[in-house]
Amino acid sequence: MSSTASLTIDRVGKAFRLNGAEREILRDISFEVGKGEIVGVLGASGCGKSTLLRLIVGLDSDYSGRIAVAGVAATDAGRKIAMVFQDHRLFPWLTVAGNVGLALDTAPLSRAEKHERVRAYVDLVGLTDFIDAYPRQLSGGMAQRAAIARALVSEPDILLMDEPFGALDSLLRLRLQDELLRIWQHRAVSIVVVTHDIEEALYLGDRVIVLEANPGRIRSVIDVDMDRPRRRDDPRINTLKRACFDLVAGAA
Ligand SMILES: Nc1ncnc2c1ncn2[C@@H]1O[C@H](COP(=O)(O)OP(=O)(O)OP(=O)(O)O)[C@@H](O)[C@H]1O
Ligand SMILES: [Mg+2]
User: Fold this and answer.
1) CATH no. of 7-251
2) Vertex 205 angle, CA 203 and 209, to 5°
3) Is 162 helix (H, G, I), strand (E, B) or coil?
4) pLDDT (tens place) for every residue of the chain, 252 residues total
5) In what order do the strands lie in the sheet with 207-212?
6) For residue 222, which phi and psi values (nearest 5 degrees)?
7) pTM of the predicted protein model
8) Ligand 1, atom 10, residue with closest C-alpha
């Protein structure tokens, strides 16, 4: 495996113990994410996508194999990885600035620097006018953008996204995909994005990993060798979409 990879997943396996019995959830998962690359992860419900992200971000360290960030074991990498969940998980008693700023709590920055950084990322996700708003005053899409700002404010090398736009209506979803790409161009962060949506994976990803279930394994890796900005109606996307659909359907 190359040493320039931003994220290395090497023969990762995971089992859960349920009612005394061991259940294998992930088997022999290996892939790399290069610096500034976007990798989509597709797979049927229950095949272990969220589990995989939890291992990568360090929420669960009980697994086999190796996960490394820029060549260093993921658990030592601290703030280099951030995660966005399907639900925004903002604290209702904090404003947008408060929620985003929380991610800088222990950062070695002065108050003024933290303030500046929070403002910059709130601007970046287009919430300038809502910096002092509470989550209840935001729409679903705005709350999700605030969650993205909170993930990015610590300037991670890797952003993990678990169905980040899954709860949003389809038009808003398309808009946030474009916004994510705009932010990605600005920050060149490496992104792993889990989604149920084949089009979303193909529109965003440099590569799409298709998992099959029981236990979760890599069924196929699809290269999306297309420049950006991409056209959603590009015939190449349609061709890949059919291939992906067959893979996902066959893996269910
Ligand atoms: N803490 C746990 N203890 C026992 N089993 C678990 C635990 N967490 C997840 N699992 C099991 O691991 C499997 C994979 O779950 P996971 O949430 O990773 O799937 P997923 O691919 O993200 O599904 P979805 O697309 O529905 O979000 C499921 O069968 C689930 O029951
Ligand atoms: Mg999940």
Assistant:
1) 3.40.50.300
2) 120
3) strand
4) 444 678 999 999 999 998 999 999 999 999 999 999 999 999 999 999 999 999 999 899 999 999 998 777 766 555 589 999 989 999 999 999 999 999 999 889 999 999 999 999 999 999 999 999 999 999 999 999 999 999 999 889 899 999 999 888 888 899 899 989 998 998 879 999 999 999 999 999 999 999 999 999 999 999 999 999 999 999 999 999 999 988 888 765
5) 81-84, 158-162, 190-194, 38-43, 207-212, 217-223
6) -110, 125
7) 0.93
8) 16
Boundaries of every domain in the chain: 7-251
Question: How many whole angstroms from 128 Cα to the centroid of ligand 2?
Answer: 31
**Gyration radius of the chain over CA positions:** 18
Q: Is 16 in the pocket of ligand 1 (CB under 6 A)?
A: yes
Nearest to 185 by CA among 204, 172, 199, 202: 204
Using most ligand atoms within 8 A of CB, pick from 29, 42, 50 the residue to mutate for ligand 1. 50
CA of 143 to the centre of ligand 2 (A): 20
Whether ligand 1 lies within 6 angstroms of the CB of 50 is answered as yes
Place of tokens 């209840």: 136
- Whose alpha carbon is nearest atom 8 of ligand 1? 51
Q: Are strands 81-84 and 38-43 parallel, antiparallel or unpaired?
A: unpaired
ω into residue 92 within 30 of 0, thus cis?
Answer: no
Residue 48, ligand 1, Cβ within 6 A: yes
